[in-house]
Design brief:
The protein has helices at 11-30, 33-87, 95-176, 181-194, 216-224, and strands at 2-3, 199-203, 206-207, 228-231, 238-241. It has 246 residues and is of the alpha+beta class.
Length: 246
């Protein structure tokens, strides 16, 4: 039992109230609906990204093949132009050499044309594939916009809860400063077992924490003690009694 004439121990009710407020805010903080909403959107984004990756894999392969063919065709056109330049330069006069050069030009250009035809086919294929993923891309953009908005909403909700916690801690500190050290230590020792109703009052010969009417002998035992803080033998809670403002 903690004796404390004066109002000091009564402030334990305020300390308890602020502790309850802090714990409630911390519980809300750990299960914010804004966090669940953001997680849901991000899960949708992940699924869509996987779909896009699967859809785009063949397109990327085609794009690589198109680039390879374009480089090869460009090389053949360059070789044809160089052979054509030599053919008409006048440096070669032998008929057989001129015929060989002409055949090179023709072969290079024909091969380049074949490659360019394949490139056109690939471009048509790519265009069809791009049209196919436009809907998914638009959906991804929409989800990313929702994810950004959900991130902002979560940050705002977390800020609100953190502010409430800090304000409650400040109020608790003010109230705790008026509580005798022994009483505060006893409260903090017992609180883990009783939580929000650790400190109760004796009202009409009844401990507020007891589920049933307190036996008269227990009520008399507490009332006979000097005003202060007593432990209820029935429920184990700390009972404020004999304090006019408790």
């Amino acid at each position: 039992m903690v004796d404390a004439p004066g109002p000091g121990l009564s402030a334990l009710l305020t300390v308890q109230s602020e502790d309850n407020h802090i714990e409630a805010a911390e519980r809300r903080l750990s299960s914010l609906p804004e966090k669940a909403a953001l997680d849901a959107v991000l899960a949708e984004v992940d699924v869509l990204e996987a779909e896009l990756a699967e859809l785009n894999a063949p397109r990327h392969a085609i794009e690589r093949e198109q680039k390879r063919l374009e480089d090869e065709a460009a090389g053949l056109r360059a070789k044809a132009a160089e052979a054509d330049k030599v053919l008409y330069s006048g440096r070669v006069t032998a008929l057989r050499e001129l015929q060989a050069l002409q055949e090179e030009v023709t072969t290079f250009n024909r091969r380049a044309s074949e490659l360019e035809d394949r490139i056109l086919d690939l471009m048509v294929d790519l265009e069809g594939r791009r049209e196919g993923d436009e809907e998914l891309t638009a959906r991804r953009d929409e989800l990313e916009a929702r994810a950004r908005a959900a991130t902002v909403a979560l940050a705002e909700a977390e800020s609100r809860e953190h502010n409430e916690i800090e304000e409650a801690r400040a109020r608790r500190a003010v109230a705790a400063a008026t509580v005798p050290a022994e009483g505060l230590a006893e409260y903090e020792r017992v609180r883990p077992g009783f939580g929000f109703a650790t400190v109760v009052r004796l009202v009409s010969a009844r401990c507020e924490g007891c589920p049933m009417v307190m036996p008269a002998v227990e009520a008399d035992r507490i009332r006979r003690q000097p005003p202060g803080l007593a432990e209820c033998n029935e429920c184990g809670r700390l009972v404020l009694h004999g304090l006019t403002n408790a």
